Design the sequence.
């Protein structure tokens, strides 16, 4: 069966249309970790699937369902939660369908039926629709915060997703309405498109606001780390000054006791000095102020719960890594470990190893635990009393790892939970 001119133009323009869908996906999703070979093959599969649906069925409602399902499938090329996927798929489809319907109405097509075969046949309309769609995606590409929408609270997300769902229903209703002119339907579709553009903008603003809020929380936490570090340094300095002041007197007493051959008394005096001046608490002291402040803050927090943190540190004074990122990684790993160990009666100890060598930073945190660590998908759930926070610590760590092409390995052996990170800094 020979293809008509319109069908050939459709197949050609749909190559460009597939590229437009690809660009839309890149507006909504982070693409750093996407497997580009699989991504390419999936879009080829999408093109073939939609072409077959058009050539063999070509019924609007079937095409709509096919596109929505295909978009949802394409979204799995990128790392995201179900909230992001659903909202992104609906907004992408709604924007594209609004453009297509507007162009169809402008080029003289006015068939209301969703269940009958689509008889639209304007080659000019096909080209115009793809051109406008490409212009729209280029415009939306300027909004960068939309990719960070995972942090949006559920209530905000629910309020936003109602808009594209309602808009799609209204468009379908307009198609079934009787007594409306094509101009009235066109105005309605354009207004729906503008409403969803506004929704897109608000989604971007809310995402930016949530990221800014998180940054402020991290900054406040970081200030606490530094404050505790300065307090510790001040305390150490006072102790050192006191030791220097008293050292001469102590040495005089010891010298006199030794001179009188009272070695037992001299040893007792030395033992008392050790008890007074020996701080048995283990603190981080690497001269790397960022890491020291975070570790010391967490060590003190652990001590309040009778938990010991042992350290094995080999790091330089300076590293090419912002303190914000260090705070997220070390803070979350140690918080999770402290939370797990706090439930134990024995073995209340956390082992922390940090080594830097030739641009590679290796971090390992090990802690005993009781019971089973629950895993949903790729996310381990903590015992946090707030369900919305379950597993978010490690997810935040993963987001930082992406910036440094890092890897994370999680193991559970003999009731010991271990998280190992490798970062290139």
Sequence:
């Amino acid at each position: 069966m020979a293809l008509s001119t319109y069908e050939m133009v459709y197949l050609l323009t749909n190559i460009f249309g597939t590229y437009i869908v690809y660009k839309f996906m890149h507006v909504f999703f982070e693409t750093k970790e996407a497997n580009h070979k699989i991504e390419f093959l999936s879009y080829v599969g999408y093109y073939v699937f939609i072409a077959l649906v058009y050539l063999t069925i070509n019924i609007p409602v079937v095409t709509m369902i096919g596109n929505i399902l295909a978009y949802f499938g394409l979204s799995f090329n990128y790392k995201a939660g179900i909230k992001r996927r659903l909202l992104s798929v609906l907004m992408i489809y709604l924007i594209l369908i609004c453009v297509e319907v507007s162009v169809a109405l402008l080029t003289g097509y006015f068939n209301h039926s969703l269940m009958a075969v689509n008889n639209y046949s304007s080659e000019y309309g096909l080209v115009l629709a793809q051109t406008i769609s490409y212009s729209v995606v280029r415009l939306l590409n300027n909004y960068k915060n939309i990719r960070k929408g995972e942090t949006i609270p559920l209530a905000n997300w629910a309020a936003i997703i109602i808009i594209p769902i309602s808009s799609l229903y209204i468009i379908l209703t307009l198609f079934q309405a009787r007594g409306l002119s094509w101009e009235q339907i066109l105005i309605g579709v354009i207004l729906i498109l503008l409403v969803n553009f506004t929704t897109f903008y608000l989604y971007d603003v809310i995402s930016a606001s949530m990221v800014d809020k998180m940054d402020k929380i991290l900054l406040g936490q970081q200030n606490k780390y530094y404050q505790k570090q300065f307090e510790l340094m001040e305390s150490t300095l006072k102790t050192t000054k006191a030791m220097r002041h008293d050292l001469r007197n102590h040495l005089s007493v010891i010298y006199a006791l030794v001179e009188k051959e009272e070695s037992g008394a001299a040893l007792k005096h030395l033992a008392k000095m050790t008890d007074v001046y020996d701080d048995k608490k283990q603190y981080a002291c690497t001269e790397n102020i960022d890491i020291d402040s975070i570790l010391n803050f967490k060590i003190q927090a652990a001590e309040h719960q009778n938990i010991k943190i042992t350290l094995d540190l080999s790091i330089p004074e300076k590293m090419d890594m912002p303190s914000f990122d260090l705070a997220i990684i070390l803070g979350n790993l140690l918080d999770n470990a402290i939370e797990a160990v706090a439930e134990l009666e024995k073995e209340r100890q956390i082992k922390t190893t940090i080594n830097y060598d030739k641009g590679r930073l290796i971090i390992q945190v090990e802690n005993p635990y009781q019971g089973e660590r629950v895993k949903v998908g790729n996310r381990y759930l903590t015992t946090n009393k707030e369900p919305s926070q379950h597993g978010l610590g490690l997810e935040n760590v993963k987001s930082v790892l992406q910036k440094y092409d890092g890897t994370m390995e999680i193991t559970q052996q003999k009731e010991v939970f271990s998280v190992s990170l490798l970062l290139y800094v």
Observations:
- DSSP finds eleven helices and seven strands in the chain.
- The beta strands are 308-314, 349-357, 360-368, 375-376, 379-380, 407-413, 416-424.
- The chain has two domains: 5-217, 281-425.
- Residues 5-217 form one domain.
